[in-house]
Amino acid sequence: MKKLAKLIVASAMVVGFAVPSVMAADGKALYEANGCATCHGPDGKSKMPTYPNLAGQKKKYLETQIMDIMSGKRSNGMAAAMKANPLAAKTDKDAAKAIAKYLSKVN
Ligand code: HEC
Hints:
6 helices, elongated, Cytochrome Bc1 Complex, Chain D, domain 2, 107 residues, binds heme C
């Protein structure tokens, strides 16, 4: 019985710290902490006509657009409003990757 309990605890720990779930959690946390939800809505579903939906978009596309907007390479439309946001400006390549991964899985 004790052995079984130990085994259950051990497997719960392995599942809990599995890399993919941590990555997904980070993406969602970063999406919220970096102010993205303010403009793009909770889970990338925007309520404003000029702010695009991001949920379910392709991962690589999202990552590229985030980095292009932040670097100023993409400056069309209202992209400048996103670049100027101090919370969003913290987003580096790793954060963009994690956020893109999370958003691409939302449907
Ligand atoms: C101040 C509001 C604002 C904030 C904050 C903001 N965005 Fe944006 N974002 C926009 C707007 C507006 C556009 C559309 C730009 C345009 O008009 O072309 C955009 C465009 C994008 C695009 C391109 C979408 C497409 O279909 O091409 C992505 C991806 C994106 N934002 C991700 C993010 C992420 C991730 C964050 C947080 C790190 C963020 N945005 C924060 C306003 C914002």
